[in-house]
Amino acid sequence: MPRAQTLAGLLLELPTRPVVALAIDDEDTRAMYAYAIVAAGFDVMTDDRALTVDDSRFAARPDILVADVSPGSSHGWRFVQKLKRERGTSDIPVIVVAADAGAATCERARREGCAAVCPKNCPANVLASGIQAVLSRVR
């Protein structure tokens, strides 16, 4: 079956898609972001068991993390700090999503080693473009 062998060979040569870990509490927002991010050519990790506050290890290593740091978020700044302190995850770029994306939040994000800040009401396609821009800078 030469055709099947050719097809199988092509499938093996396909590049992997970058993986985006979404640490967003609100289910609707997470789903909206995930849809746009997948449409932009990424794979998405949203399983709460994959990323937790108490354990910054991931079930699979993401290429980038988008984390909600708004007050009341279960992930928040503590999760970002722990991620950036851990030897195996400190190099993962982080985009924080914040209800208040003003100067104080931007300064804190910079201090914590984050790559970008996104307002919480940011359209999903704009976030997807921002993810692409951050990954382009760090690669």
- The CATH architecture designation is 3-Layer(aba) Sandwich
Helix proportion of residues, in percent? Answer: 40-55%
- Kindly state the mean pLDDT as a whole number? 83
Radius of gyration: 16 Å
CATH 4th-level superfamily = Response regulator
| Number of helical stretches of at least 4 residues | 5
Task: Please give the domain count.
Answer: 1
Fraction in beta strands: 15-25%
DSSP strand count: 5
In terms of structural class, how would the helical and strand content be classed?
A: alpha/beta
Keywords:
single chain; 139 residues; Rossmann fold; 5-stranded parallel sheet; 42% helix
Structure description:
By secondary structure, the chain is of the alpha/beta class. It has a single domain (15-138), classed as 3-Layer(aba) Sandwich (Rossmann fold), CATH 3.40.50. It contains 5 helices and 5 strands; from the N terminus they run αβαββαβαβα. It has helices spanning 2-13, 27-39, 76-85, 103-111, 124-138, and strands spanning 19-23, 43-45, 64-68, 94-98, 116-119. It has a 5-stranded parallel sheet with strand order 2-1-3-4-5, sandwiched between helices. The termini are far apart.
List the helices and strands and how they pair.
Blueprint: H1 2-13, E1 19-23, H2 27-39, E2 43-45, E3 64-68, H3 76-85, E4 94-98, H4 103-111, E5 116-119, H5 124-138
Parallel strand pairs: 1-2, 1-3, 3-4, 4-5
Helix pairs in contact: 2-5
Provide a concise account of the structure shown.
It contains 5 helices and 5 strands. It is an alpha/beta fold and 139 residues long.
